Amino acid sequence: MSTQQPWNHEEFEAKLREKGAAYHIHHPFNVMLNTGKATPEQIRGWVANRFYYQIAIPVKDAAILSNTPDREVRRQWIQRILDHDGYEITAPDGTTVRDEGGIEAWIKLGEATGLSREEIVDLRHVVPGVRFAVDAYINFARQRPWQEAVCSSLTELFAPKIHKERLANWPEHYPWIESAGLQYFRNRVSQARRDVEQGLAVTLNYFNTREMQERALNILQFKLDVLWTMNDAMANAYGVNK
Ligand SMILES: O=C(O)c1cc(C(=O)O)c2c(n1)C(=O)C(=O)c1cc(C(=O)O)[nH]c1-2
């Protein structure tokens, strides 16, 4: 057991952010995608496989909702499910508000790359390594205390940069993908920032001894490994061009 003093919030947050060095933004398969070296086949392979992650996220968030007795947390956390699944809500006066949600936006991204809706949603292209890695994330959220599951979402600290990189580079390198198809990435930049604020607040407060803070870093590493392993599996299936 560690007998050291806990890091203060600033130090602890800095330790979490240091973990960005192991983010999948640095994986050779992602570097290939974001530097314009990928073939249409490789891009389609990535989009079709990442769809399995997209559909897992609201399931994972529903596990967190079901595990927390804290109503204030649930009030905020439910937004993530709406972000991905979309919603159609009719007020008592009959007015309806709808949003197609991130999963639908991801399907549109897939269609913009030349995949059919059917071959995306029936998961035929999802390779075993991606499936196992994503399932591990869902299982972790189902089985561990909800604060640990919240902590595991903190790879989102590093996500705005990867989305912005795609928005900056894909139109130049892959002009055959219609710009409207990239809407998912545009939406996520601000959504990820908001998610991170909430996830960080829970994590900084809950992991309040040095031993727990070290556990939080290991949890974040687990999630980084989920994303890294997905990229390994896709690199194995589709290859990496130098
Ligand atoms: O494209 C990416 O590289 C990337 C990474 C991550 C991430 O770091 O987990 C997420 C997303 N995108 C994303 O779009 C998203 O909605 C999301 C939710 C979560 C989460 O763990 O709750 N991660 C991510």
From TrEMBL:
GO biological process terms held by the UniProt record: pyrroloquinoline quinone biosynthetic process
Keyword Thylakoid: no
EC numbers for this chain: 1.3.3.11
Gene Ontology molecular function, alphabetical: pyrroloquinoline-quinone synthase activity
Pfam families tied to this protein: TENA_THI-4
Keyword annotations from UniProtKB, A to Z: Oxidoreductase, PQQ biosynthesis
Keyword Transmembrane assigned: no
Reactions catalysed according to its record: 6-(2-amino-2-carboxyethyl)-7,8-dioxo-1,2,3,4,7,8-hexahydroquinoline-2,4-dicarboxylate + 3 O2 = pyrroloquinoline quinone + 2 H2O2 + 2 H2O + H(+)
Enzyme class: oxidoreductase
The Thiaminase-2/PQQC domain, residue ranges: 14-232
SUPFAM superfamilies associated with the record: Heme oxygenase-like (SSF48613)
Pathway annotation: Cofactor biosynthesis; pyrroloquinoline quinone biosynthesis
Family matches, as NCBIfam families: PQQ_syn_pqqC
Functional note: Ring cyclization and eight-electron oxidation of 3a-(2-amino-2-carboxyethyl)-4,5-dioxo-4,5,6,7,8,9-hexahydroquinoline-7,9-dicarboxylic-acid to PQQ.
The family this protein is said to belong to: Belongs to the PqqC family.
PANTHER family: 4-AMINOBENZOATE SYNTHASE, PQQC-LIKE PROTEIN
Protein name per the record: Pyrroloquinoline-quinone synthase
Source organism per UniProt: Methyloversatilis universalis (strain ATCC BAA-1314 / DSM 25237 / JCM 13912 / CCUG 52030 / FAM5)
